[in-house]
Design brief:
Blueprint: H1 2-27, E1 32-35, E2 45-53, E3 59-61, E4 77-83, E5 101-105, H2 114-118, E6 126-134, H3 141-151, E7 163-166, H4 173-205
Parallel strand pairs: 1-2, 5-7
Antiparallel strand pairs: 2-4, 2-6, 3-4, 4-5, 6-7
Helix pairs in contact: 1-4
């Protein structure tokens, strides 16, 4: 019984959190077009950003939480520092870069170039337009933390910049509300089970009345 209640609590709490965050994302408004240098700690929502992806500094993190130094596959996530488009020269020292966001991307295979990365290949800095979402609980928090720790050796200020999850966009508003309601109903069920368990416990421990 305890294991079942624990599973219901975890599942319901997660569903409620995800649903609420998705509803908040919808309420944040339509997609905004930004320059990378316009991103700050208050930036959140669905955005399209013009900047420079510093691929030579990118870190790939596997699904089991290890930094990939060999062959990459489609399950890996990439974490790429994003600077302004004006900072896209290949010979710019890492310590002088003004990173505006950390991009999380699922394009780890790089269209068949995974074998080249295993041999030490590093793509050059590239001017890009990236669409995605900042904030609202998006992204893989565990792998993001690993990537920030790894990149922090070269870019100490990276821990202050927001995460931009590439190709993420608001989903269905109906699905968002439905997910939140699943969480609410699960917590209500958990409460009901708790009340029933307390009543059974009281019934078992109640002393018989003396005649």
């Amino acid at each position: 019984m305890g294991a079942l209640c624990g599973a219901i609590a975890i599942g319901s709490g997660l569903a409620l959190y995800v649903g609420i965050q998705e509803v908040r994302l919808h309420r944040s408004g339509p997609r905004r077009e930004l320059l990378a240098e316009e991103i700050d700690g208050r930036t959140a929502g669905w955005v399209q950003v013009l900047g420079c992806a510093r691929h030579e500094l990118e870190v790939a993190v596997s699904s089991d939480g290890t930094v990939v130094t060999g062959l990459r596959d489609a399950r890996d996530l990439l974490y790429i520092p994003l600077t302004s488009a004006s900072q896209c020269e290949e010979d710019t020292p890492a310590e002088s870069l003004q990173v505006r966001a950390l991009v999380e991307s699922a394009d780890a295979a790089h269209q068949g170039l995974g074998a080249l990365y295993a041999q030490g290949y590093r793509a050059p800095p590239t001017r890009v337009i990236i669409e995605g979402v900042i904030g609202f609980g998006v992204g893989d928090g565990r792998r993001e933390h690993i990537a920030r720790r790894e990149l922090g050796q070269k870019l100490p200020a990276l821990r202050e910049v927001p995460l931009l999850v590439k190709d993420r966009r608001p989903g269905s508003k109906v699905a968002a509300w439905a997910t939140a309601m699943v969480g609410v109903h699960g917590l209500l069920l958990l409460g009901l089970l708790g009340v029933l368990a307390l009543r059974r416990l009281r019934a078992r421990t109640q002393l018989p009345l003396e005649e």
